Amino acid sequence: MPRTGALLSLSREHHTSLVMARTARRAANENENDAMARAVAMTAAMASIEAHWHTLMAAHFEKEERLIRIAQDTLDPQAVTRVLAEHAELRILAAGPCALEPAARLRRFADLISAHVRYEERTLFPQLQSHPCITDVVTDADP
Fold first, then answer.
1. Among residues 38, 45, 41, which one has the least CA distance to residue 108?
2. What is the pLDDT of residues 106-118, one digit of tens each?
3. Which of 16, 27, 68, 127 is deepest in the core (most CB within 10 A)?
4. Which residues contact 98 (CB under 8 A, 6 or more apart)?
5. What was the pLDDT predicted at 33?
6. Could you read off the pLDDT of 7-18 as tens digits, one per residue?
7. pTM for the full predicted model
8. What is the full DSSP assignment across the chain?
């Protein structure tokens, strides 16, 4: 189903998060025989992810969570719980203090953001789009 209204810009932004996932995965798997090159790649990937968090993902999550609040009465409660829990974990992985070692953190970020985007596109967004108020909601990024 083609995206409309407030979901259109959010759906487009998912592509950049998938690019970040690929960057994180590559850095985590960077030349495991060269510790220095791997450390440099992982540091650069984390810096890119944190910048992506500040420039796009934080606002993106806020918009999605606002739409969820608007439509919550018609959404599958398990979908809402899953998306909000993933948002919380992704916040930590992208820009918060994290106990995971760098390669594990990058892999977890890559795996989670990829699965999260797929889930939103396949499960949550169709539910949101069927809510009568969502197509009329304008987010800050919409024209």
1. 45
2. 999 999 999 999 9
3. 27
4. 92, 105
5. 73
6. 999 999 999 999
7. 0.89
8. ----THHHHHHHHHHHHHHHHHHHHHHHTS-TT-HHHHHHHHHHHHHHHHHHIIIIIHHHHHHHHHHHHHHGGGS-HHHHHHHHHHHHHHHHHHHS---S-HHHHHHHHHHHHHHHHHHIIIIIHHHHHTSTTGGG---TT--
